[in-house]
Every structure is written in C-alpha cells, then in structure tokens.
Design a protein that fits this description.
This protein is mainly α and 456 residues long. Helices cover 81% and strands 0% of the residues.
C-alpha cells in the first residue's frame, strides 16, 4: 500500500474541502423556499425580490476577489478555516435580521463566504489530487454543492408550516454544517503545491507521501518547484504567455455557465412551478425532485469525468440544456406551460447540467492555470461568474414576468448553445494531464508565446 494512492486519506481531504461546496449550495438554495415568505414579510415587488435573491451573489463577487488576493499569501487551508467561521456567523445574522436592510447586509456577508469558498475549495481539491483521479475528486465538489441544495430544499419543505418566522429557522439551520466544516478543515493539511511555493518543500513531501505513498515524492516536489516561475508573482503575471489565453477561455466559460440559466432555475424553481399552476406546497415538494435529479446525475459524472474527459461532458451537457430551454419556449408559445410538462423539461435540463457542465466547470477551471499563479488566476473566472450570476438572478423575475417567458427561456437557450460551441472550438481536454503539463498546451497554442520563446 506504501506505493499506491492512499485513497481513504485523499477522500477525507476532498470531502473536507468539498464541504465548502455543501455550504455554497445551501446558502445559494435556502432562499429558494424562503423567498415567497420573505417577499410577504418585507412586502417586496419583483425587483425587491430579485435583490433579496441576488444580494448574496454580489457578496460572492467580493469574496472571490478577496480569496484570490489572499490565498497565495496565506494559503488555502487558513482561508478555508476563516470562511467556515464566516458561514456560521452569517447564518445567525440572516435569521435574526430585524428589517430588510439587515437581511440584505447579512446575505452580502454570507455571499463573501460563498464567493471565497467557490475559489478555495476547487483549488484545494485540484492541488491535493493525483492526476489519474483528479476529475473524480473535483466532481466531489459539485456533488457537495448538490447535497447542499437538496438539504436546503428539504429544510424549506419541512419548515414551510412553522409560522410567520419559518424563513428565519430555514437560514439558522446553516450553523450545523458550518460547525462541521470548521472542525474538519482544522484537521486537514495545507496543499503540497502551496507548501512548495512557500519554500516548505519538506512539509510538501510529507503531504505527498501521505496522499500517494513514498514513490516518486522527490520527483513530484522537483517537478512542482520547476513549474514555479522565479520572482514574486503579481497581477501582471496573468498576462504572460501560457496564462492569458487560459484566462480568456475561463472568463468566457464563467459568463456562459451563468447566462445559460442554472441559478435562475434553481433559485426561482418554486416561482416557476407556481406560475405553471402549482400551489406553494406542491412547488416546494417539486424542488426536492430538482435536488434529487441533480444529485443522481452528478454521481453519474463522478464515474464519467475521468473516463470520457471534461470536454465531451461539457459539450453534451450544454447542448442538452439548450434543447430543454428551447422546448420550454415551444411549450410557452403553444399555451401548454403548466404542471408536469414544465417540471419534466426543468428536470431534464438539470440532468444535463449536473452530468456535464456543473462538475466539469469546477474541475476544469483550477486545472488550466500554472501552479505559481493559480490562486490569483482563479480570481478572474470565479469573480466573473459571480457577477454574471448576480445580474441574471437580479433581473430574472422582471424578465420572466414583464419581458415574457418565451423570450427569457429563448435567451438562456441561445447562451447554452454558445457555451457548447465555444467549448468545442477553444477548450482543451485536460484528462490524464498533470497540472504541470497543462500550461504547455496554452503556450503551444499562443503564437506570441512561441515567437517569444524563439527570441529568447
């Protein structure tokens, strides 16, 4: 066993970091069921409700920016510990909000935690995972997001009839997974790549040996060290050959994953089902089906991502999502937007997202950046996807009710098609490539990088 991957320990590390994904999913989705009750409690219109939903996402923008600036200085593990504490505090603050302003403030600070963990957890998992199973380990992050969503949907349903303050109890339950996250991350080590970057090669060797046995630890440390560009890295490092094209590709993927509608479908699922004729109890019950569908198909991705690769899953998922969104346009135009038909297409849409796009995005993005700038570079796509998410979620109620269902679903479907085409043309396959090899691909496809190397 000494020369083989220590799978149990690796799973512990991945599950610990992925618990951040559970809190991510919980905080994103808990307002799904709480939203109708919050709307009544604070007497909100469409834009007010959109602000209640999207305020967390604007906090996510700040959180991802802060995490990107700090993770290469203080490490992945320390920041994850701080984020876990912030999750617990903001769960209490949201539940105790006395007015809408206090509620929004608490949600923004909760968003800072979500934004930070959305950068740190995939980064941590990517840096502790051996090449052969890195895709599966990365998929565990998406799986934990889905578990967080299912948990919040179940809590929403169970607490729906507990009185006018039911929404407060919904948010307060977030304290429990936050406390577990604090305990587990306290037991986890720093990532070997950050340790090498910090000049702590001996500690990195210990972590690598515990993950994969004694075999080739010295060579792994040497390879990681060789991939670190000399000198202090700054934001201008992101413009060097081998980074800038990866950065552009990740930024476009970050926009497309949000404007193709995933979080609008999750956040506003009860409202969509109600507009299709369901009563509030049935709408909340249907969201549990949403969560179960996401969970089952994310499990399928766990099996497929290292077998068929990232690119194929992303393309299939994108075009499948587009098919469902276009089908919803047809349903609206045919006057059949009700009940089982709407639920069916939304579940199929989520199945394609959960099998392909969701797990691959959070696995692929940290893979495509070089070791020495990975934390800083991750800031760009993570921040951009939160900005895009915030804008889409803010405007969705207005677009859905004023601009119209057909045009809204049609726009989301067009963006899903663009996502599939872009991935097909410009995104590399990273399966079975170690993190040090992937930078070479971007250098090879960047003409200015080739000519620069020739000049040198």
């Amino acid at each position: 066993m000494n020369n083989r991957i220590h799978l149990r320990y690796l799973i512990f590390l991945a599950c610990t970091a992925a618990l951040g994904g559970l809190l991510f999913g919980f905080d994103i989705a808990i307002i799904t069921g709480a939203g109708p009750f919050i709307g009544r409690a604070f007497q909100l219109g469409d834009l007010g409700l959109g602000w209640a939903f999207s305020s967390l996402l604007f906090g996510c923008v700040v959180g991802s920016l802060l995490a990107g600036r700090l993770t290469d200085r203080y490490g992945r593990r320390k920041l994850l510990f701080v984020v876990a504490l912030l999750f617990a505090l903001t769960s209490v603050a949201t539940a105790m909000a006395g007015n809408f302003a206090a509620f929004i403030t608490a949600r923004i600070f909760g968003g800072i935690a979500v934004g930070a963990v959305s950068l740190l957890s995939p980064l941590y998992i990517s840096e502790v995972s051996p090449t052969a199973i890195r895709g599966r380990m990365g998929t565990m992050y998406q799986l934990s997001i889905v578990l967080g969503i299912i948990t919040s949907f179940a809590i929403n349903y169970l607490l729906r009839d507990t009185g006018v303050n039911n929404w407060r109890w919904m948010f307060l339950t977030g304290v429990v997974p936050s406390a577990v996250f604090v305990l587990l991350i306290a037991l986890a080590p720093e990532t070997p790549r950050f340790l090498v970057m910090s000049g702590r090669a001996r500690e990195a060797s210990v972590v690598l040996e515990r993950i994969g046995g004694a075999r080739s630890v010295t060579a792994q440390v040497a390879e990681i060290a060789a991939s670190m560009h000399t000198g202090k890295q700054s934001w201008s490092s992101l413009l060097r050959p081998g980074v800038r094209r990866a950065l552009l590709a990740s930024a476009i993927l970050a926009i497309l994953i949000q404007v193709s509608g995933i979080n609008t479908i999750i956040d506003y699922a009860p409202g969509i089902f109600q507009s299709a004729g369901s009563k509030i109890d049935s709408a909340l019950a249907s969201t549990i089906l949403v969560g179960v569908t996401e969970f089952l198909f994310t499990l399928g991705s766990l099996w497929a991502i290292d077998r068929y690769g990232r690119k194929a899953l992303y393309i299939v998922g994108s075009f499948g999502m587009a098919f469902c969104l276009v089908s919803l346009v047809v349903v609206v135009l045919a006057g059949q937007f009700h009940g089982v038909i709407v639920l069916t297409f939304i579940l199929i849409y989520l199945a394609f997202f959960s099998f392909g796009v969701g797990p691959v995005f959070w696995t692929l993005v940290p893979e495509i950046f070089p070791n020495d700038v990975r934390g800083r570079a991750m800031t760009v796509p993570v921040l951009i996807q939160w900005v895009a998410d915030a804008v889409v979620v803010l405007l969705f109620p207005f677009a859905f009710h004023v601009i119209g269902r057909a045009l809204t679903f049609g726009f989301l479907g067009l963006m899903a098609i663009c996502q599939g085409v872009f991935t097909w043309l410009y995104v590399p396959e990273t399966r079975n490539k170690n993190l040090e090899e992937i930078e070479d691909y971007w250098i090879a496809v960047e003409p200015s990088a080739v000519s620069a190397s020739e000049t040198e």
